């Protein structure tokens, strides 16, 4: 059982990041020197995924262009002898990686976006990555999706990435509850979308990484609209729970919520500090700031 396909839902409206997202998807916002979507695609590739399925909305062009060949740019860099930059440009899409695009005509919710990719996924397990959650694996360790693929190989069931969230933030997440299998894994018995802290079944919030079995498509299709009038992925997973095992996995690493301005700024500062070329100079700059 391999996870060879990943869905990247990139059709949301990105209202929390206006005006930057007025005419471009938030997934194209750069953190240091790469757009968010490229971090997510690289994470999926490192986990063994080779078929990348983008569910796009009205701003689809920049994402398609980013993963396409840029012939004039490559020729110009080659003629100028800029081999390192040429490599940077070419490495965005390795030869053995396939990019496929499907349109979500209306942003009816994350569950609906995933459902739009059903025919392309077919009857096999698949990953879902929300690129506005930028995930950085532990230093020298594996990326978050790769950790999840290993859990999937062992348990052969859907795996949701989770983390403890502050009680006052349960309203921002899908929240799971269940029995601990070990220190990192919970056998999920309940999942609720964006509960108020008083009714949240736990403080384990789902981050934007999932490995799902194809049975979830049927469940999403049969759910009524959920929180916010949207077709929610969480409700589809709640349906799946009645038929199959679903595990929540406490991933190792750090998540930046780049769908919010604060999280995006934090990611930029921390990833710039960790950048091999930019880091030292940027650290000096920050230290000299009179704050
Ligand atoms: P968000 O909940 O962050 O929604 O979606 P959003 O519309 O992008 O952003 P805000 O809240 O208005 O600022 C989570 C992920 O699901 C995708 C988004 O692109 C994002 O990656 N999504 C959401 C879709 O592709 N389609 C939808 O209908 C909703």
TrEMBL record:
Belongs to the UDPGP type 2 family. It is an enzyme of class 2 (transferase). GO terms for molecular function: UTP:glucose-1-phosphate uridylyltransferase activity. Pfam families: NTP_transferase. Keywords: Nucleotidyltransferase, Transferase. Its EC number is 2.7.7.9. It catalyses: alpha-D-glucose 1-phosphate + UTP + H(+) = UDP-alpha-D-glucose + diphosphate. Residues 10-271 form the Nucleotidyl transferase domain. This is UTP--glucose-1-phosphate uridylyltransferase. The keyword Transferase applies. It comes from the Bacteria. Signal peptide: none annotated. One of its GO terms (biological process) is UDP-alpha-D-glucose metabolic process. It comes from Roseateles asaccharophilus. InterPro entries: GalU_uridylyltTrfase_bac/arc, NTP_transferase_dom, Nucleotide-diphossugar_trans.
């Amino acid at each position: 059982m391999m996870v060879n396909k990943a869905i990247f839902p990139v059709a949301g409206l990105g209202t929390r990041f206006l005006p930057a997202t007025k005419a471009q998807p938030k997934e194209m916002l750069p953190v240091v020197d790469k757009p968010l979507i490229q971090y997510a695609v690289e994470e999926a590739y490192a986990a063994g995924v080779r078929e990348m399925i983008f569910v796009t909305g009205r701003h689809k062009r920049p994402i398609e262009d980013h993963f396409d060949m840029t012939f004039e740019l490559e020729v110009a860099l080659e003629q100028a002898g800029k081999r390192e930059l040429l490599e940077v440009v070419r490495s965005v899409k390795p030869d053995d990686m396939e990019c496929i695009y499907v349109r979500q005509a209306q942003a009816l919710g994350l569950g609906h976006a995933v459902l739009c990719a059903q025919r392309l996924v077919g009857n096999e397990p698949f990953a879902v990555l929300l690129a506005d959650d930028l995930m950085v694996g532990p230093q020298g360790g594996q990326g978050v999706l790769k950790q999840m693929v290993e859990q999937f190989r062992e348990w052969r069931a859907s795996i949701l990435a989770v983390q403890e969230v502050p009680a006052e933030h349960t309203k921002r997440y899908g929240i799971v509850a269940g029995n601990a299998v070990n220190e990192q894994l919970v056998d999920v018995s309940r999942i609720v979308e964006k509960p108020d802290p008083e009714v949240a079944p736990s403080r384990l919030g789902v981050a934007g990484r999932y490995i799902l079995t194809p049975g979830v498509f049927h469940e999403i299709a049969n759910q009524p609209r959920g929180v916010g009038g949207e077709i929610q992925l969480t409700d589809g997973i709640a349906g799946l729970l009645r038929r199959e095992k679903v595990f929540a996995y406490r991933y190792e690493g750090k998540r930046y919520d780049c769908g919010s301005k604060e999280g995006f700024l934090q990611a930029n500062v921390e990833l710039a500090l960790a950048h091999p070329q930019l880091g030292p100079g940027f650290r000096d700059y920050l230290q000299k700031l009179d704050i």
